[in-house]
Structures are given as structure tokens and as C-alpha cells.
Specification:
- The protein is 1% helix and 45% strand.
- By secondary structure, it is mainly beta.
- An eight-stranded mixed sheet has the order 19-18-17-16-20-21-22-23, with no helix packed on it. Strands 31, 33, 34, 36, 41, 42, 43 and 45 form an eight-stranded antiparallel sheet that branches.
- The radius of gyration is 25 Å and the shape is globular.
Length: 576
């Protein structure tokens, strides 16, 4: 197909707009591998999580869930038969959350705009349909969102109910409706059954997440339960899907991003002293009915992922019968005040539904894409070079053990962290949760805390599993009273190789709180830092000691204790 290109003058900003197809990708560019899970129309929303506790990431799609890696389908409720032409599914949006706190991922489903929102309790591998409970009697707006509204790492549902934009919290009584917290007053914009456009972000830069619709935004108060919030009326474009507040042009204040739900157009609204100035940057395909803001290529700038909602209204929309495209749009800033969104095609036979997921599906640290719509259910795994030099890659997705292996009886996931051990019983022996990939030269970063400041743990680097044994052998960045910041040689020389200055470390260490731990390995040199303080600088004198290996998270045998690990990321260094 022919590629069309045009330049638009946008004040201080330069926006490049491409036609339907993106330029050819060079070697080393971001690429995706498509996995067709199911070609049947199941839903227009999808969610992910380790549903059956086998350490693999599975997929929710409305009535059913798919078990990785063979994608065996399991019923959650009675399975409907939905027609792509002239019909809709009973799932406009699907979200995953451990609602009842039992450690198993449950499913939240918004069936159809204006109707009930339900949650389905995970039966913990028991057979039969899942128990259904009601979140609320009515969920309005075609873009219900599930976001970290309070900034505490816990996502909240937001949509319209009874004419008010409302956010919801899990109630103490799980049998009852969820706790509703109105954001707006009655008859608010964005609250009708088929309203288009809803989002969240810190519009005014006060550190609190606001709620956005096309007619303006609600300013978050200090107490988010105190409503109604103050509404700022402003025109933020035509009917759209997800909306985001983000500093697109890098000038220090947040702009707003939106995309057309049923027509053509993708826009960013530049915040200026006079208000918001609209810039269109793409109209190569229509019906971008769901969009994610995420850093796809690891360059520190947040990109966009979206596509065509295939046959949204049975092909009656503008461009409704065109190919079902799926793209990511790379944000570039070629100069001060200048902006480029460069489109990159992911696929031309899938598109998106009314909601989809962008997440690290396979635990390799790169964002992947999961869609469910009238084309079926698909996964797109990013296949660019793992942990490209100089770019941080997440090793833990905060939800599943994808990319890790070990004794899962000793480790669990809680509040976005890997937790080893327990405060209820003694720890019978050392246990290690191990990343599956080997590394040579790298900087490994994570946050670590010991519950109540008690116990012992550590992070294995350049290590190996001992065959047919629970132990690992190799360097360990130690954790624990009188051990923090030490470099220990686990199961090999069995001694401390380097130790920090205890008085200096005490000035920065939080014994029972979160500590930023950084391990940098280059050649034979290993350096450790805790909360910015370099604890050791060690050079290995023994040429026979391997300088490559695995990464492992330890809980040490002994009395009751818990170690928490989160925000785990790695940057591979030259020579890897």
C-alpha cells in the first residue's frame, strides 16, 4: 500500500502524521510475535494474571479464561454465542484483581454500557462456574477504567452511575455492592450509557490524579472520598476512548491525550497559558476505541498503543470495513517544544476491542499486548533484543511469577511485590526464587524490605542452582541486621567478601522499611549501593570464578520472617 505523509504546523510543536502504514522497521527495532489464542468472538475486553497458580500468565475474556501455555479454555459462566456482524458480547471490559484478598486473581466484568458490573470469585481450581457478585447496578460510559486513582498501587473502578462519575472501592461485606464515591454532581458529562471519553491523570501537577472527560476535568481533593470534586470546564476534543494526562512536549506541565472512538483522529492537547491547544497527529485508520499510554521501547518516554475496534457497529462507521490494525506510536522529541508520534504497525488482522491489556506477559521485562474482540483473542509478545544496553527492563510484572521459577510454597505476590517466607511459622530452609535468564554485565535495581526488620535474606547475582538441591551457589547481596550491604559468597567460599562501613550505612538504612538496592557488575568488579550509599566495591581476584549467571531472591531459613522485593529492573551493560 502507498504510504502518505504530511506535515502540520502546530505552533511551537512539530507533529509528523503518517498514513495507514508505518515505515519499514530496521533491524533491532521493536517487533512483536502474534499468538492466536482463539478465533471466536468472546468479548471486547481482556485481562491477565496467574489464574490457576501454576506460575504462568493466563487470560480472562469475559465468559471464559485461557490456561497458558496450551490455551485450554475454561468456563467462568455460561458461554454465549456472539455474532461479529450485528451483535455484541456480554463483556465490554474485563479487569483482574484479587478482590477478596485470598491470593487468587478474580475477574471483574463490565458487561454492556448501562448494565451491571459483576465480579467473579476464583474457585481456586475447583470445577464449575465461578460465584458471581454485583459491583454496582449500572456502569455507564463506553470506556470504564480501572486505574491507580489514589496513587497507592491499588486500582479503582471509575465510570458513570446514576448521572454521577463515581469511583468504587471493595467493601468490607463482599456480598454487598461496592463502596461508591461520587466524583461529580448529578447529570455530569461522561455519565450517559453510551458516553465516550474517560481518563485519569494529574492534570494540574499537584501530585494527585484527576479525572478527565471531553468536556473538562475534575480536580482531585486531598480527601478523594469528599465529593463532588471541583470541575474545570474545557473543550478536550470530540468523542473518544481512554484519556491521559502526560507531559507530551516535555515542557514541565501535563497535556491531555485522546483518540477517536468511532471516527478518524488521534490528538494531544497542549497545555498553554491560554488553555489547551489541540494537535492531531494521526488519522490513518478509524475507531481507536481503546488506547494505552506506556513506554514500549524503553527510552523513558511514554508511547501509545491502540488499534481499530473491528466491526464496532457492523461496519457502518467511517472506515468500519477496513483492516483491523494494531499499532504502537513512538513519542519522539526532536527539539525543544517539538513533538513527533511515529507509527509502528504491530498487526493488520486483529485490532482492539473496547478495552485491552498492555503488560509484561512473559516476564522478560518488555511490554506485550493482549486483545480480545470480534476477531478473537490474541497475544502479541515483544521480541526486540532483551534488555538493550542502557535501557531498564522490568524483571517482575507485579502480578505473576512469569519469568521466574522456584518453590512457590515459599513465595507469594502481594501488593505488587514478591514476598518470601511467613511471619506465622519457622522457615525450614533457605529458598530461592530464580529468574530464568542468565546475565553477565548489568545493573540490577530493586526495592527490598524485611518485615519488622527481622530475619535474613539476599539477592543472588552471577549464581547457579545446585543440581538436585534447594541451594544456589554464587555472589549474594546480603539483607538483614548486620548483613545489609555485604557481598557474601553463598555455598562456595561461604564467607563475606566485602563489608560496608556500619556507621555510614546506618545513616541511610531503613531497617524495617523499603530500601533501594542496586547491584552493578562489570567484568570482575561488583559494586553495591543502598539508598544511594555505596556499601562495597569488590574486584574478584580468582580467574576461575564465573562472571555470568542467574539472579535469585532468597528467604533464609530460621525463625518466622518475611522479605519483600518489588520494582525489580535490570540494565544490561556493554560486554553482555
Amino acid at each position: 500500500m502507498k504510504v502518505t505523509r504530511r506535515l502540520m504546523g502546530c505552533g511551537a510543536a512539530l507533529v509528523v502524521v503518517f498514513g495507514l502504514l508505518a515505515p519499514a522497521q530496521a533491524e533491532g527495532e521493536v517487533r512483536f510475535r502474534k499468538i492466536v489464542v482463539d478465533r471466536t468472538f468472546r468479548s471486547e475486553g481482556a485481562a491477565v494474571g496467574d489464574i490457576n497458580h501454576d506460575g504462568k500468565t493466563d487470560i480472562f475474556a469475559g465468559d471464559v479464561w485461557y490456561e497458558a501455555p496450551a490455551w485450554k479454555m475454561h468456563e467462568i459462566r455460561k458461554v454465549g454465542s456472539y455474532k461479529a456482524a450485528g451483535g455484541y458480547s456480554n463483556c465490554f471490559a474485563n479487569f483482574s484483581q484479587d478482590v477478596n484478598g485470598d491470593g487468587w486473581i478474580d475477574s471483574i466484568v463490565v458487561g454492556f454500557p448501562g448494565k451491571e458490573c459483576f465480579w467473579y470469585e476464583n474457585p481456586k481450581n475447583a470445577k464449575g462456574h465461578w460465584k458471581r457478585r454485583t459491583v454496582t447496578h449500572s456502569a455507564c460510559n463506553e470506556t470504564p477504567i480501572f486505574v491507580d486513582l489514589l496513587g497507592d498501587g491499588k486500582r479503582k473502578l471509575i465510570f458513570g452511575t446514576d448521572g454521577k462519575i463515581t469511583w468504587y472501592n471493595v467493601p468490607k461485606d463482599l456480598e454487598g455492592l461496592w463502596d461508591a464515591h461520587p466524583i461529580s454532581g448529578p447529570k455530569a458529562p461522561g455519565t450517559q450509557r453510551f458516553s465516550h471519553g474517560l481518563g485519569m491523570g494529574d492534570v494540574n501537577g499537584d501530585g494527585r490524579n484527576d479525572v478527565i472527560v471531553t468536556q473538562g476535568w475534575w480536580e482531585a481533593p486531598i480527601d478523594r472520598t469528599a465529593g463532588p470534586w471541583k470541575f474545570h470546564k474545557v473543550k478536550l476534543g470530540p468523542k473518544c476512548a481512554d484519556m491521559y494526562a502526560y507531559d507530551v512536549d516535555g515542557d514541565g506541565d501535563n497535556d491531555v491525550i485522546s483518540t477517536s472512538a468511532h471516527k478518524y483522529g488521534m490528538w494531544w492537547f497542549e497545555r498553554t497559558p491560554a488553555g489547551f491547544k489541540q494537535h492531531e497527529f494521526f488519522k490513518g485508520f478509524s475507531q481507536t476505541h481503546a488506547v494505552h499510554l506506556v513506554d514500549i521501547n524503553g527510552d523513558g518516554l511514554k508511547d501509545l498503543v491502540t488499534g481499530k475496534r473491528y466491526y464496532a457497529h457492523s461496519g457502518r462507521d467511517p472506515g468500519g470495513k477496513d483492516p483491523a490494525m494494531l499499532y504502537w506510536f513512538e513519542l519522539r522529541r526532536p527539539g525543544k517544544g517539538k513533538v513527533q508520534y511515529v507509527p509502528h504497525k504491530i498487526d493488520d488482522d486483529s485490532g482492539v476491542g473496547t478495552q485491552f491489556e498492555v503488560t509484561d506477559f512473559n516476564g522478560d521485562g518488555r511490554p506485550d499486548v493482549v486483545t480480545s474482540n470480534k476477531k478473537g483473542v490474541r497475544v502479541f509478545l515483544q521480541e526486540s533484543g532483551a534488555a538493550r544496553a542502557g535501557r531498564a527492563v522490568r524483571l517482575f510484572d507485579g502480578k505473576t511469577f512469569a519469568g521466574w521459577e522456584g518453590n512457590l510454597k515459599s513465595f507469594r505476590i502481594e501488593d505488587g511485590a514478591i514476598v518470601g517466607g511467613t511471619l506465622k511459622n519457622r522457615i525450614p530452609r533457605n529458598e530461592f526464587l530464580c529468574a530464568k535468564k542468565e546475565y553477565a554485565n548489568f545493573e540490577l535495581r530493586m526495592k527490598v524490605k524485611l518485615a519488622n526488620g527481622r530475619g535474613n535474606a539476599g539477592i543472588q547475582i552471577r549464581s547457579r542452582r545446585i543440581p538436585n538441591h534447594h541451594e544456589m551457589i554464587g555472589y549474594q547481596a546480603d539483607v538483614g541486621k548486620n548483613w545489609w550491604g555485604c557481598l557474601y559468597d553463598e555455598s562456595r567460599r561461604r564467607k563475606v567478601l566485602a563489608r560496608p562501613d556500619a556507621k555510614q550505612l546506618a545513616k541511610v538504612l531503613r531497617p524495617a522499611g523499603w530500601n533501594q538496592y542496586v547491584m552493578r557488575c562489570e567484568g570482575k568488579r561488583i559494586r553495591l549501593r543502598i539508598n544511594g550509599y555505596q556499601t562495597i566495591d569488590y574486584t574478584e581476584p580468582d580467574a576461575k570464578i564465573p562472571q555470568t549467571g542467574l539472579i535469585g531472591l532468597q528467604i533464609h531459613g530460621g525463625g518466622p520472617s518475611e522479605v519483600w522485593y518489588k520494582d525489580i529492573e535490570i540494565v544490561e551493560l556493554p560486554g553482555s
